[in-house]
Amino acid sequence: MTIHKHAPDIVVGRLPVYLRALSAMQAAGKHVTSSQELADWLGISSAQIRKDLSHFGEFGKQGTGYSVAMLQERLRHILHLDREWPVVVVGMGNIGNAIAHYTGFERRGFRVVGVFDNDPSKIGARIGAFVVQDTASLISFVREHDIRHAMLAVPAEHAQSVADMLIEGGVVAILNYAPINLVVPPHVRVEYIDPVAHLQKMTYYIS
Amino acid sequence: MTIHKHAPDIVVGRLPVYLRALSAMQAAGKHVTSSQELADWLGISSAQIRKDLSHFGEFGKQGTGYSVAMLQERLRHILHLDREWPVVVVGMGNIGNAIAHYTGFERRGFRVVGVFDNDPSKIGARIGAFVVQDTASLISFVREHDIRHAMLAVPAEHAQSVADMLIEGGVVAILNYAPINLVVPPHVRVEYIDPVAHLQKMTYYIS
DNA sequence: TAGATTGTTAATCGATTAACAATC
DNA sequence: TAGATTGTTAATCGATTAACAATC
Asked: FRET label pair with B138: which of A27, A57, B37, B50, CA 20 to 30 Å apart?
């Protein structure tokens, strides 16, 4: 059995940020960059970038820096983004709707393959490219399609029970838009999107 | 001149999370809680909660714990949420639309007071309770209404120039939905909402 | 009072930064 | 070669945890 030592979580969380910056650089026509240039771009230190990357290997050339295309490719590989992952969305309110219409997933490694709601007036309706399915069929759907990722946009009071269903079907990565903390087994990851929490945090520093 | 020493940023960022948990507890009819109960709820250590709170004062009773209502009130005060803050939304695509329809702001200290876009086919249209205004009038609007908060939901290529306008009008807290890093002066805070980055981070741990 | 839980101190742990030899 | 920048080490800095006296 292979013992696989993960990099620190806080480092892993910065890799998508680096990827985002590299995409912007590529769009700007840059072919080569340096830890210093990336650092200026992101407002962090160049040492941190080099240290972070050193957890995964050596990707640069002394005196020259990094190939933008190559570093992107390597980071995508590290994050397992060198394939496309199917994702389901549960909850077709405002937020679920916006997600179902959002076109930015494919380019970055994901594809929404199904959207769900438990409201009879929504089930069967078209939203964007999708027909809304009944949440009652959620477990079998994620199981049959081998889905690991879900975006959860149901009201707070239903978030935990829907999360339980997703996990039963095999989902291990949940992006939770409901402003409530989920309790999940250790093999499941949850990340939270709570815009108001960000506004509240920034407000501490005002006046 | 008063020298005001801020608590660590990482601690400030957890206060909204505590506030969220306390709201859930209040909704569940709890009147009193403890650092241990909050910790279990959130999946962190009770020592961290007590240490975090100790940056701001003493809010509990030995042997008893914390009054849910009182701790909420104190945290709201610390975060300057004991008033309602006006917010503008710029960019009326999918995401801006969802934000304009979202009803969860008021309860947590914010009120959307204006929505903007630069697309002539959208300007003047009703979206939720709002009439879409021309981005050309953004600077004067935020200045006249003394607005400090903005949510930025324009395409990535326009995010920086709109941010510059917001800042010129006096905005100091920007919640950026565009997957691009903004460069801003030191008195301005930016937080990022990038759902795909969260999905990418979680994907590192899969398989 | 006895039991429970706070607020705080000190120890531990981990992350960031500075510095530089290696080398393209 | 000379200049630039990496990858890495060691030092610093900061955050988390454990432990417990204080006290409700």
From this structure: A27
Domain stop point among B61, B78, B95: B78
From chain B, the residues in CB contact with A205 under 8 A are 6, 12, 172-173, 189
Tell me what the pLDDT averaged over chain B comes to. 96
Put simply, the chain B residues between 118 and 137 with a CB less than 8 A from any chain A CB are: none
* Residue B184 per-residue DSSP state: -
Percent helix, strand, coil in chain B, to 5, is 45, 20, 40
A93/A193 same-domain check: yes
Domain of residue A102 covers: 85-197
**Interval B17-60: pLDDT, tens:** 999 999 999 999 999 999 999 999 999 999 999 999 999 999 99
* Smallest CA–C1' separation from B10, nucleotide: D15
Indicate the SS3 state at residue A177: coil
Tell me, in Å, how far CA of B22 is from C1' of C5?
Answer: 18
pLDDT, tens digit, 9 for 90 and up, residues B81-90: 999 999 999 9
Domain count, chain A: 2
Assess B94–A contact: CB distance below 8 Å, yes or no: yes
* CATH number of the domain residue A60 falls in: 1.10.10.10
Structure confidence at residue A4 (pLDDT): 59
Q: Answer yes or no: do B104 and B133 share one domain.
A: yes
For residue B151, which of A43, A101, A20, A195 has the smallest C-alpha distance?
Answer: A195
